[in-house]
Design brief:
- With about 350 residues, the protein is α/β, with parallel strands linked by helices.
- The protein has one domain: Rossmann fold.
- The chain is built from eleven helices and twelve strands.
- The strands form three sheets. Strands 3-2-1-4-5-7-10 form a seven-stranded parallel sheet, with helices on both faces.
- Helix 3 packs parallel to helix 5 and helix 9 packs across helix 11.
Length: about 350
C-alpha cells in the first residue's frame, strides 16, 4: 500500500463542482499540485481566478474534458499524475431519463479507471466520490446503515415507474451502478495495476459553497438549494417538514476525506461512509438561532417549532471512517454559520 503525500500532482475531475472545488482547495493548501478537469474553458476561468487570488496560480492546471462519457475522455488528463480524485457525476434532479444520470456516472467512472491503466503508470491511489445513495434508499423504519449495505430498492422504483420514478431514485441507481462498476473493474485488474481504489460515500452534503454561482439562490446545487429554501426562504415551516430526518456531512469534511484517502495506508481498497450525523430540520433552525451576530439581517432566523421530536430514520455507522480517517466533523452550528456567511456575501 502506497500513500501519496505532497508535493505530488493530483487530478481532480469535475473540478468546478460543489465538493470538487473544496477538494482542489484543500489539496493546494496542503502543498499538492492539482490538475482539474472541466467541461469547457469558460468553467475553468473561475477556478483560475479564484485560486490565483489565493496564491495558488502556479500550482493549478485546468484541462477541458468536454464529454466524460466518450471513450478515452481522460487519456490525456491522467498523464503524469500521482493520484486521481474522481468527483465528476451529475446530481441534478430535474433530469428525466435514467440514462442522463447513469451514462455520465458509469461511463465516466469506468473511463477514468481505463485511462489510468493505459496512460498513468505513476498513479498510486484513485478516490471515487460515490454517495450514501448507493448504500440505501429511505427505509420504512429507523435503520443504521454501514458500508456492507447496498441500495436495491431504488432500482425497484425504476423498474416499476420508469421515467416517472422519483428523480432521487434515478440518481441513487446511477451512483450504485457506477460504484459497483468501479469495484468490479478494480477486482478484475487488481493483480496487474499499481494503484489502489478508495470510494467515499457521503450522505446529503451541506456547507459553504465556493464554486461559481451565476445566478441567485435558485441556481444553487441540488443538495444545497433545499438547505437555503427551508432555512432562509419563506416557505411554510410545517410540523411534517421540521420533523423530517436524514443524515448529512459538511462539504469541507467530505473534501477532507478525499485528501485523507490518498494519505492513509489503511484506506486502500476501502469503501468509506463519511457522515457528520443525523438531523431533523428543526435542529438546523435551533442551530441557526444560536449564531451571534446572525449573518443575514434581512432574513432573521425562523424559530420553527422548538422542542419538536421525531426518530432519526436514516443513520450511518461511521466506525470505519473514524478508524481509518479520523475526521472531526463540523457541527451543525459551524456549518450553518459559515454557509449563511457565504449567502450574506452574495446579498441573498
Amino acid at each position: 500500500m502506497t500513500i501519496v503525500p505532497p508535493p505530488a500532482k493530483v487530478l481532480v475531475t469535475g473540478a468546478n463542482g460543489y465538493i470538487a472545488i473544496w477538494v482542489v482547495r484543500l489539496l493546494l493548501e496542503q502543498g499538492y499540485s492539482v490538475r482539474g478537469t472541466v467541461r469547457s474553458a469558460g468553467k475553468g476561468e473561475y477556478l483560475t481566478e479564484y485560486f490565483g487570488k489565493l496564491g495558488f496560480g502556479d500550482k493549478l492546471e485546468i484541462v477541458v474534458v468536454e464529454d466524460i462519457t466518450k471513450e478515452g475522455a481522460f487519456d490525456q488528463a491522467v498523464q503524469g499524475v500521482d493520484a486521481i480524485e474522481h468527483t465528476a457525476s451529475p446530481f441534478i434532479t430535474s433530469l428525466v431519463n435514467l440514462s442522463d444520470f447513469v451514462d455520465p456516472a458509469v461511463r465516466g467512472t469506468v473511463g477514468v479507471l481505463q485511462s489510468a491503466i493505459k496512460h498513468a503508470p505513476n498513479v498510486k491511489r484513485i478516490v471515487i466520490t460515490s454517495s450514501c445513495g448507493a448504500v440505501m434508499a429511505p427505509p420504512p423504519q429507523p435503520t443504521i446503515f454501514s458500508e456492507t449495505d447496498w441500495n436495491t430498492s431504488s432500482q425497484m422504483d425504476i423498474d416499476k415507474n420508469g421515467v416517472n420514478a422519483d428523480p432521487l431514485s434515478k440518481y441513487r441507481v446511477s451512483k450504485t451502478l457506477a460504484e459497483k462498476a468501479a469495484w468490479e473493474f478494480y477486482e478484475k485488474h487488481k493483480g496487474s495495476i499499481g494503484w489502489e481504489l478508495v470510494v467515499i460515500n457521503p450522505p446529503f452534503v451541506f456547507g459553504p459553497p465556493i464554486q461559481e454561482i451565476t445566478g441567485g439562490p435558485e441556481s444553487l446545487n441540488t443538495s444545497l438549494k433545499p438547505f437555503y429554501d427551508i432555512l432562509v426562504g419563506d416557505g411554510p415551516k410545517t410540523e411534517k417538514l421540521l420533523s423530517t430526518s436524514n443524515s448529512w456531512v459538511d462539504v469541507r469534511d467530505t473534501a477532507l476525506s478525499h485528501i485523507l484517502a490518498i494519505q492513509k495506508e489503511a484506506a486502500a481498497g476501502e469503501r468509506i461512509i463519511v457522515c457528520g450525523g443525523a438531523y431533523l430540520w428543526q435542529e438546523w433552525f435551533d442551530a441557526a438561532n444560536t449564531i451571534q451576530p446572525y449573518p443575514l439581517p434581512n432574513h432573521p432566523p425562523a424559530k420553527g417549532m422548538p422542542g419538536i421530536t421525531a426518530p432519526y430514520v436514516i443513520q450511518y455507522n461511521t466506525a470505519k471512517a473514524d478508524k481509518l480517517l479520523g475526521i472531526r466533523y463540523k457541527t451543525k452550528a459551524e456549518t450553518i454559520r459559515d454557509t449563511l456567511e457565504i449567502f450574506a456575501a452574495k446579498g441573498w
